[in-house]
Amino acid sequence: MINLELRQALKENLADLNPGDTVLVACSGGADSLALVRAAVHVGNELSLQVGAIVIDHQLQSGSSLVASGAVATAQELGAHPVELIAVDVLIGPGSGGLEAAARDARREAFAKYADQNDVKAILLGHTREDQAETVLLGLARGSGARSLSGMRRIDGLYRRPFLRVSRAVVRSTVEDLYVHEDPHNSDLSFARVRVRDSILPLMEADLGPGVSSALARTADMLRDDADALDQIAATHGLIDDVEVLAKLPRAMRTRIIRRLAAAAGCTMNDLTREHVLGVDSLIVHWRGQGPLNLPGSVNAERAHGKLKFYHASQA
Q1: Residues with Cβ < 8 Å from 90, sequence gap 6 or more?
Q2: Domain range holding 181?
């Protein structure tokens, strides 16, 4: 019998798909992803969806191929079809953002390629309410602003997170009869997310009372609504580069337009910090004749003849 809360969450998340569509669960062999496989196969039968699984071998640890093969076998036993195993190379270097980011980028590239080649309508990810709370806390610690604090979306293009409002405990209670793989990285305190999960959130729950994770997840939903509305308004202004026009806009609008201008010039947005953006904003509201600013991706920004100009450093 499938847990009712998980079943309802999946039916809501997949309601816009059509009978016969193929969806794949990103399956690591961990408890969350196996719970998602089990529930998705059940709901897929109700909705006439083809529910499979895709297992990524990051090749980062000794024996990773055995773990991946085990995940494939369990997904097949749970009724997923097709089940695909893909090995990827995780490239860690300048600009990669570290091991976690590099691994995420490698598997996302593999997901997108496979989905495109096989007409996959959605990739399901097993993130839970606690994962959302961790994301919000990490964004808060980095001072990343409303967009980062808005956390993860339940539907984000190809990717879907049906369990984002469901507690981790409820999700994991549905696979207590299965062997699940515990990724060693999930207990490695060198990762900030693990420290938040194992130390900070439990401490907050103990000192502030139960419900902190739920409150953080609700906060993410509200901030996402606000950030989406501001982004939509900023988009209606287009790529304004006239500094007099920009100066009359609220800073929340200006900074969003600055980001759009920087992206259009080839700036690497993952590396563009608020300090970068405020530096460009100073060319608008605190103009003292200062020279070009260096932005990530070898992009420069400067003010000239009443305009903001973004260009690649090689064009200087």
Answers
A1: 58, 59, 60, 99, 102, 103, 106
A2: 4-126+162-187
